[in-house]
Amino acid sequence: MHVSVSEETAEQQPAAHQVSAFLERRREQIAQRWADAALFRTVFTVSRDEAVEAGRAVAAALAAVAAAGRLEDIRASGFEAVRDQLGRMAASRARTGTDPDGVAREVAALREPVTELLRAEFEDPSAPGAQECVVALTVLMGTLRLVVMETTVSAGKEVIARQREQLHEATTPVIKLWDSTVAVPLIGTLDSARSQVVMESLLDAIVTERARYAILDITGVPTVDSLVAQHLMKTVAAARLMGAECIVSGIRPAIAQTIVHLGIDLGTVLTRASLADALAYALSEQGVEIAPLRAAGAAADAGPR
Fold first, then answer.
1. How far apart are CA 219 and CA 274, in angstroms?
2. Closest by alpha carbon to 43, among 105, 99, 77, 86?
3. Distance of CA 166 to the CA centre of its chain
4. What is the spatial distance between Cα 241 and Cα 267, in angstroms, rounded to a whole number?
5. What pTM was computed for the model?
6. For 264-303, how does the pLDDT look when each residue is reduced to its tens digit (9 = 90+)?
């Protein structure tokens, strides 16, 4: 059944309310048309019914926003119901190689099918009331586009943050070298975020392995400034509070000169030239004696027969 909107009715109701009523009334038709649009068709590839259902939800959200008269408000409560869904849809398009501009164009393409349905609602599509409704719908669809783009950017930032955290964890492994001895070989630049990961990972390993000695090897750290030195001091202090002796190894001559030049006092920190020296110290403190294999074999041969 076709329902037309007379000019008298258009004058009695604000354009936003008319658009809201239209979206509710034509939600099914809108959803069916959107299901064939690129944004929905390429995301919901298993079943068209999923695309239609998603279209219904978005149309209902737009109707709620229009009913509240908040056509230009990306924070309108009506959008909350579909914000996560729109974000997942945009993220799905991004994973297939569609850039943000492409996603924006696909969202913008949703306007035309709805506008056609809205114009058909009026006896005279060129009447002022009809034009006001079309303008209101255009503004609303533009806001939807902004919501999608904002959600896309936020999702991208979250992904980057997770990847950065995973990278920090991957580049700061804690290695068990011996009973009660763990080590963290640091490679690359240390910043505040990564230093925090180092500290947390090391303290967790101290508890898990019941370590008495923890080695921080900075052989792969290109430079040491006052900030890096402070992070190292904090990590050493935290390890001591956990009952472990912390040894810093791999201080190269250039780094040693820098530390002296900066006036950084590492007098309370136990240091060794290399990871091997630090491990040898930790083992000797635990009563473990290291001897060359040949010497150990000769000693065994010289024993009682």
1. 8
2. 86
3. 10
4. 18
5. 0.53
6. 777 788 999 899 999 999 999 988 877 776 655 555 565 5
